[in-house]
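Structure ticket #2291
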Amino acid sequence: YHSVNTTLPFYIPAPPFLVNPFGTLGAVIRIREPLRERKALFDIGIAGPLAGLVATFLVLIAGFITLPDKAFLYTIHPEYLKGIYPPEPGLAFGDSLFFIFLKVSFSGSGFIPPMNEIYHYPFLCAGWFGLFITAMNLLPVGQLDGGHILYALLGTKQGIISRIFLVIIILLGVSSFLPFVPWVYEPSMTGWLLWAAILYFIIKIDHPPIPDETPLDTKRKILGWATLIFFIFIFIPLPFSGIAF
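Resolution: structure written out below.
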């Protein structure tokens, strides 16, 4: 659409030692030439997240509509019928505000599985990961898609907000070292420190400058701010945790 010279997607396989059921960390597309227009930067930045959100929303709706009743879970864990639960905490997926909204919306129609059993429900599991990955990509930092969108909206002021979010990510990671603060402490939060290092050293905090200073049109501004606000609703502060059933 904007005739931008790019590479084909570079597939990034997930290392086997990572807990990753999809076997991939996604793909990277390199732009071979500097972008010169804010409009092009905005359109490129927002296209992927919007497409991902639409697909993820449809998958989640399908998952909630087709949820089996509680008997399905008992076929996997018959010991639950006898009141026998795992002695050790299990892996649980974290909640985002949007996921909580969907659970509440569909709770009247039947059984909603606990978050430490979501991986038994393929549509919900895929939808959850779709929200998680899209939220990570929408962080308004550097050359993530969220950074593209915010730079197109604010120009160089994007760097200020990038630093604020980097501090938030670091604070989330630091919480894993605060056992004396039980309402904050969660060992699995150390992953945020790795992500903060990737943002700072690899992705970078500041967005490369774009020579065009022409403001975006009203439609793009509304769409951009709406997308960044929705990011707050799909962001998961505690993606994974150990929790008893």
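Closing remark: The mean pLDDT is 88.
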